[in-house]
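Ligand: S-adenosylmethionine. Inputs:
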Amino acid sequence: MRLFSKISLNRLRSGSIVGEQGDHIFLVPPFTPEVAASVSLISTRLPLRADERSRLLCQMETNAMSEREHQALAPLFGKMQKPQRVLEIGPGFGRSVVYFSKKGVWDEGADVHLYDSNGTETKYKQEYYDRPPQWPDVSSFCGQLSLLRSFLDYNHIAGYRIFDAAELPLCKLPGTYDLIYGFFSIGFHWSLEFYLDDLNPLMGKNSVLICTLNKHFKPFTRLRDYSTRILYCRDTKKRAAPLRLLALSKGELPEVGITLAEAFPGSKL
Ligand SMILES: C[S@@+](CC[C@H](N)C(=O)[O-])C[C@H]1O[C@@H](n2cnc3c(N)ncnc32)[C@H](O)[C@@H]1O
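Predicted complex:
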């Protein structure tokens, strides 16, 4: 039955996405037209409509993606102290903060900050990668903070703080943080190089930053100022190459995954 549900959903809606029905950790609320439209803007990978089938497809894919990221990062999380202060950059509708909270990546008492803003269009195209809008231009943001709050409430996740990027730049967040992460956000759609100055005051010596890398990523010289490791994460797109997650710190990182030089031979870093 489980296999049948998976195959039939995939055939009907999105043959290229891998996901499973079952016990989902991140729960997606009913898809009203407004919810479906906002989620579609954030998650352009899925063909979504305002119906139950789309809600389930979204729930399957986001849980599968979060599970894969969690598995890929497990060696790193296993060697770090549990973070007490956490920042997610570009949480969208909150799948990762829900998944990581429920998986105990941090304890209930941790300070969890989320940084995003409202927007009505995406700036995901490669042309923006080397020219991302810079604050106070927040036109790259495509989230909806009320939607984020409602998804967190629906999943009974409390004790977080949401910071609106339209009101304050990244560098003014109340750091430092033990863990900063962003999936399919900075570092993926927009080169991490443009955010390092803003991230600097948010990071202490042992802070760890994690982001998904774009498949066109090339190491850049400023990465030499940090310790870095690359961890591989299976994609939810069938037959897609594994995604690369970059871990970066001012201090030493545990020897998990592989080095940047191993991941990008010939990059001279
Ligand atoms: C593709 S969505 C990913 C959402 C979520 N991280 C996930 O994986 O489901 C990109 C997110 O980055 C946010 N974003 C856009 N510009 C940003 C910026 N300059 N800094 C941080 N986040 C940004 C968007 O608003 C959106 O929530």
